[in-house]
User: Fold this.
Amino acid sequence: MGLKVKLIKSYAGASVRQKRTVQGLGLKKLGDERILVDTAAVRGMVFHVRHLVCSEVVQEEPRLRKRRSKKPACAPGAAEQGQKG
Assistant:
């Protein structure tokens, strides 16, 4: 079971904490929907921004994405060449 969350109102003018909560839920644009794992933490986030989102419990399981590894900013040794002595 998952929790379907949809952004129904713009978060322009909302507090920084509310904007970060919406971003933490994975919502970027108005009308975006995500199916999330139904946990207490996610429900707390939804409760915090309940005036901006709507949510419902669905039978569909959320698709978990693989974590991406961080890529180095530049090739090894390239940073040393740009340094001034």
